[in-house]
Amino acid sequence: MRKLLALLLVLGMVAFTTDYAVAQDGEQTVGEQVIEGAENAAETVGDMAQDAAETVGEAASDLGDAAANAVAPKKFGHQLLKEYFIQGGWQFMALVLVCLILGLAFCIERIITLNLASANTDKLVARVDDALRNGDMAQAKEICKSTPGPAASIIHEGLKRSGGGLESVEKAMVSYGSVQMGLLEKGLVWISLFIAIAPMLGFMGTVIGMITAFDKIEEVGDINPSIVAGGIKVALLTTVFGLITAIILQIFYNYIVSKIDSIVNRMEDASTSLVDVLIDNKVIS
After folding, report:
1. pLDDT of residue 197
2. Of 261, 277, 282, 279, nearest in space to 117 by CA
3. Which of 93, 128, 132, 138 could make a disulfide contact with 281, Cβ separation 3.0–4.6 Å?
4. Contact by Cβ (8 Å): 137, 169
5. CA distances from 198 to 97, 107, 141, 188, 204 (A)
6. Is the predicted pLDDT of residue 163 greater than 60, yes or no?
7. Domain residue ranges in the chain
8. Is 106 within 8 Å of 187 (Cβ atoms)?
């Protein structure tokens, strides 16, 4: 009986110990699962917070760039031209600018001179006719002297040679007309030179800029698009400014040529009218 009780006591203690151990292991496993779940949740929340912070930062950066672009004034007109001029390099840009300044100086001088030389030839011939009708050759010559312009000078030369007959008058006016033509066309050769040389200087700057760009590529050892694009942009700016200079000067040149043609036509009309006036007033026969 005692042995049976002892056996039951031992079995009971073993069962109790086993249950306690299993319960303890279960409690430990559940605790670990709870801790692991908490850690995973904390990590997920942290990742979400980091992603949200990055999104907010990017949005703020975009808003800042947009605000900067909205506030910063856009360059246009002479400011943009000045910026491109500096980017093109002062060596060739300065030469193109000198061509533009000198060419404009010659153009302005020619325009002022030709406008002063544009006299009313019909009115001049009418005044000379009135003086010759009164038999006053000296007054007719004085009228021509006091009137500016090549037409008045040609008429004056014709009046001076009126004593030699019709052939002498015509020859004098033709000869002096050639002299006046040379004076009217004075400076046009320099304008033509600047029109031709400005694009050439621009092209030369472009070629040298391309060589410089390829030298940079060789130094880097790799074809970087930014290096190539930057070098080509600087190189092409000299060509653009050279062409702009040539276009501006060409417009003035064509205006000056048309003005000279108009004055020459008036000179020829005045010469023909003078011959008729001399014949009508029986100064020559």
Report:
1. 93
2. 261
3. 132
4. no
5. 9, 15, 46, 16, 10
6. yes
7. 1-72, 81-280
8. yes
